[in-house]
Structure formats: structure tokens, C-alpha cells
Amino acid sequence: MGLLGDSEGKKAAAPREAEGRPGLVSRRSFLWSSLALSLLPSSARASWDNFVTPADSWPQFRGNHLLSGYSSSRVGNLRHLWAADAGESVESSAAVAGGAVFVGTQRGELVSVNLGDGGVRWRYAAGNPIGESSPAVARGVAYVGDLSGVMHAVRAADGQKVWTFKTGAEIKSSPVVVGTRVLFGSYDTHLYCLSTVNGRLLWKLKTGGQVHSTPGVAEGVAYVTGCDEILRAVRIATGREAFQIRSGAYTGASPALRAGNAFYGTFNNEVLGVNLISKQIGWRYSNRDRQFPFYSSPAMIDARVVLGGRDKLVHCLDGYTGRAVWTFPTQARVESSPAIADGRVFVGSNDGRLYVLDFGSGRKVAEFNLGAPVSASPAVASGRVVVGSQDGKLHCFG
């Protein structure tokens, strides 16, 4: 079994460029991460295999615990179906569960609308603006953080408050629900773990900087990148660090996890491929012609990593080598994190457009002008693509 799976590796096209630079780990060492995983009990391996978001839901930021941004939904030819007025700028990425859409707004509301027609189901007043924190929905409860540092738990059926928990600074990290625990970061430099039942603090881990990243989760371990330039592996049961890897740069993006590896961009204008078994950086990618940070979180499938850059490009990289497979130009920063479904990439740009690209070639299939910057990330569920824009609109395509 190769990195990301031999069958996936065979599907990926040969890299067309060579911006990726060899790192500390050979490809053979990178392959070992998957071999090591194959020796684990099936119950442990299963958490690394859950990189596909079910077709009928998108319950959290990036769709699933591995933050893969990949959905099994069949999408078809898209047309604009509806636009709902969220009230103010939408930088939060939508969650979809039970035929409903959930999204936070700068007005300070968590809004739920019907996926079918965009009709408003309810509005929950958080009391303070909700920025980039994106809702997670699990077992009938929606969770989201606000810019005053409060994590909110809200009943998904009717928008009634279940509990709140106050941290020491703004929350831009998106919550991740693991069993009866909810994980998220705060700008007060801590990673938090709360009980989903009553919001009680179970543990918090002090880091050396603001925690903007959403944790990726596999095999009972949370992987979180940091503004302190460190990727941490934290045991969810205890809150104790298993290990840390120095990224060498401030990191706002969240890590996509696959087969014992993590992939994420940094403010040092690089994308990293990190082997979590050997605990070393396998490769570093940078665009030689445009040196700009990567704020977008990656999506991945078929041994390919896709993410946006502040260089106005969407980048597709070979997951084994870090070399460019293709790039696609937009007219502004790409801070939206891509979603992949049905052989296509869906990604917003601050040029006000939602782009639909062919996953294999990077060729543009379609674009939709939403009239305002699109820094939020698309959610894909039940054959529909939902994304918010900074003029306060929530758009649905299908």
C-alpha cells in the first residue's frame, strides 16, 4: 500500500512542473507511513480511512474528521438554485445535516435554512460576530465559536441554546465533535476540549501562539497546526501531547490528513507534506514565480492535494512529491478552501466568483459571479453546493 493507497497513486497524473523541493524524507520513507498503518488493528485503521464525506451531509468544516474536503455526492451540471439573505458578511463555511444548512454571520447569528429552497428555519443570536468559525453538527446539536471567544451549542431543530463556554479570546477555529467531546482552538493560545453534554471543560492545552487551525482527528489523536509554527499531535482522551513537528512558519490553515500524513500551507509561502509516523517533513512546495502565503486549507483525493493561495492561484500538487500537477489563475486571493466532488473542484475567490474546475486537468468547467468576495469554503451535500459571500448572501447551486 503506497502513500494514500496504491490504487490512488496510479490515478494521479505525472507532475507537469517541479516547484516541489525534496525534503528530509525520501518517497520510500513516505510510503512507510501507509505500511505502518496497515499493521494497525482494523479499528485503528478505520479512522484514517474515513476521508470521504457521505453524499447527503457536510457536518463540519472540510466535511469530515480528516479535513479532506472530499464528498461522495454526485453533483451534475450546476445552476444557481437560490440565495438566502444571511444578514451580514458570511466568512463562516456552511455545514449541512438533515436537509438543513447552518452558517455563522458577522451580524452575530447562527442561521439555519432549508437546503431545498433556502427558506429560513431559525436564527440564533450569538450576541457577537461569528467570523471564520464554521458550524459542526452532531446528534442534533450545532456548535460554533464567535469573535468574543464564546463557543455556542445550539439545538439543530429549533435554534435554542443548549450551553455556552467562554474562552479568553476570539474563536476562529471550527469545532470538531468526537464522540461526546468537542475540540476547537482559541486566540487565547489554547486548544480546548469540552463535554458535548453540558459544555464542561475536560482539558485545555497551552500552545505558543493563537490557535486558528481546526483540528484534524485520526485514531484518537487531534492534529493541529499553530501560529507558533508547530504541528501538534494531542491525545483526545487526556489532552497530552503525543509529539510535535516544527513547521518553520506561522500557520493559519488546517491540516488535511491521509494515510499517516498531513498536508497544509504556511505563511512562509510554502505547502508542507508531513510524515506523521517518522515525524518529519517529506516535502515543501513553493511557487517560484509568486511568493505569497497559503491561508486556504487543502482538499485531497487520488494522491493529489488542492488548495488556494494568496498568489491568486488554485494549486494542485502531487501528494508523493509536492510537485505541481496544475495551477488555475483567478483575479484575487484564494482564501476559500476547496471542496472536491464528482471529479470537480469547487472553490471561491476574493474576486467574487465560485469556480468549478476539472479535478484532473484544472480546466475551468464553470464560474458563477456572486458579486462579493468569497472567502468562505463550499459545502457539498445531496448534489448541491452551498457557499456564503461577504455581502451577506448564502448561495446554493445544484
Structure description:
It contains three helices and 34 strands. It has helices at 6-11, 27-38, 42-49; strands spanning 20-22, 70-71, 80-85, 95-97, 100-104, 109-114, 120-125, 136-138, 141-145, 150-155, 161-166, 176-178, 181-185, 190-195, 201-206, 216-218, 221-224, 230-235, 241-246, 256-258, 261-265, 271-275, 280-285, 299-301, 304-308, 313-318, 324-329, 339-341, 344-348, 353-358, 364-369, 379-381, 384-388, 393-397. With 398 residues, it is mainly beta. It is 7% helix and 41% strand. It has one domain: YVTN repeat-like/Quinoprotein amine dehydrogenase (Methylamine Dehydrogenase, Chain H, 7 Propeller), CATH 2.130.10.
Summarize the structure.
The protein has three helices and 34 strands. It is mainly β and 398 residues long. The relative contact order is 0.18.
List keywords for this structure.
398 residues, mainly beta, Methylamine Dehydrogenase, Chain H, 5-stranded antiparallel beta sheet, 5-stranded mixed beta sheet, 3 helices, 34 strands, 41% strand
